[in-house]
Amino acid sequence: MASSDLVTTCLSPPVHYVICKLGFEKKDTYDINNILSENGEVCWQAVTEHVCYLESDQSVDYIKSIRSLGPVCESVNLHFKSLTKEQFVVQYVLWFHWTNYTELFLEVFDVLQYMQTTEVALGLMKLTSCLERALGDVYLLVGKDCPFLLRDLLASEQLAVVFGQAVMNVLRVFIGSPYGLNLRNVLWHGFASPQEIPAKYCAMLLFLTAGLGQLLQTYLLQTKCILVHRPYVIFVSKEEIDVFPGKIDLNHETLSIAEELVKLSSFVLKTMSPFWMAALTAFKQSRYADCVILLLPQLEVGLRLLFTTTNKCPNRFLTAEMLAKHLDNEEVNQLPTVLEEPAMASEFLWDFLNHQEGPRIRDRLSHGEIDLKAFPREVANQIVAFAITLLCRFSDGDLSVFKEHMVIKPLMNCASCYRSRFHPISRLKKQVLECMKSIHLWPELPTVPEEHVQTIKGLEGNAEASSLILKISEILSELQQYTPQNCYSSDDPVNSVLTERLLIELCDMRICTLYSPRPVLEILVILRKISTQCHQVSEQVITSTELRYKQWMNKTLRSRQRHNYLRMLNSMKFLSPVLRLILVLITLELVNVHMVCKKNPSDYQQYLKFLKSVLQYTENLVTYTSPEKNKWDETMELTNKALMKIRKISDRKLMLLQLAT
């Protein structure tokens, strides 16, 4: 890996000029009283006058606007420096209530007094995140479906209705437009080092946020509307992101080694090392949100550097899409190979940052969706531990002494065997196993004594159920060659093959999740729907069985209901193996999905047809077994037709499996 000392900035020359120089070109001294009234209100008209427009189409001229607003920002910064904390609270705190996080803005005011560049950058990242969330809440006063991207939110007609278009244009000079200062993006994506973000821009956004609060109060009084804040996202399943187990404690010794690694690792740009050190300090101080906010952009920077070095394209350092499969010239991206795909970074990063069902930590932090005050240590623990493994892996020197250290080696071991947890393939595996656990509860369900059943005439025979189980056995005999050899018994194929142990063994097989092509994702959508329907059938059967048993024992069932209940018990004899068969089929499809998708289109379409027919059957099962329908005779007929169809096309299906293997 190339020396990180050679990189002095991550900003392109035009962006560096816009952020670091353009707003300092005008040397005028601007009087704060021009934009701040005696009673402490922001004079928006005086502020908006500094936004310039292109003559051609009257769109914002960002270059001229930044140059014009430079002295205004400096004046605001000096104004805040002249205030004591008490004066600031009295004059401004009321106007931050609309953000639902007043404490953050008081914190940013404190940071501006001491001018620590790293803290200013952190304050600005948190401020823009909180501001975006609050603006989204305001958007919902007027519109629906708040835009996901900040640039779209700021350009929306809905916010212009509340605040005025001229005011929104001022905001767009600072955040949300790639042609302006774009402060949010350059920080959250790790392009700006601490010393490259002028404190006066942070001060100006603090000032503008207060001004927005004043405008919003006027709007709410006029419209009699009430601003409602959306609830924060909560990490529900923390155990799913527990890559580095809690027993691997990030104690003081581990963090001290991490600080040494920051100084030595080529994964760290020297200009960015203050961010790393501040992140580790924040973790020590239990400021877990601050730690992760500081660290995530630096992981992106380090991976960009590694990407450009590995693929020999230094010109891409400012724009690299590290996890893309191909480069611009269609050559394969070598970064996953260097990262020892899938173990270390590729799947971990996709899981934690990108996959829709994953925690999407950066998205949710940067868009203000997470309560920073209650950010869980468990999540921060994962990010810090992962960062330490990257620091160890990439260095110009010999870091073996660190890699073998007793507190670092367990982290490296955990990272090396990581498997995706939030890719659709991984989620399907989890669904299948959860469904099987549900079906396994059936034998434990209470049922009426056998002597009670015998008193009901016309229900003595189980011929239909036995016939269906025989069909299932015949299908299993054909599928046995695709299942582990120790999982099949010709004496009892149903109970020897359709087991949780088989599914666990199949689900444990390694399946590539990186760069899944569209056909794979299309198939996964269908398979997940099938699994969901099967699980719903199982839960409905459990609920109905428990309820009907209670009613039977209490003798509250009418004659017709008693007959229907016994039909349900009879149907359960074949429903259980049918559902288990479908789960095994799903898992076999999953194991071979990448290979089948590479075959000719006609085979692929036949493959889809088969899956959709199974989906249709399971959807009908959900309807027939629902408490409202209770159509158990129809369920038997439906299952018989489905098994006949599966058996009829099984030869074709087996051919597809052979193609796949």
Automatic annotation (TrEMBL):
This is EMARD protein. InterPro entries: DUF4209 (IPR025209), ERMARD (IPR039635). It comes from Nyctiprogne leucopyga. The gene is Ermard. It holds the Pfam family DUF4209. Residues 131-211 form the DUF4209 domain. PANTHER family: ENDOPLASMIC RETICULUM MEMBRANE-ASSOCIATED RNA DEGRADATION PROTEIN (PTHR31701:SF2).
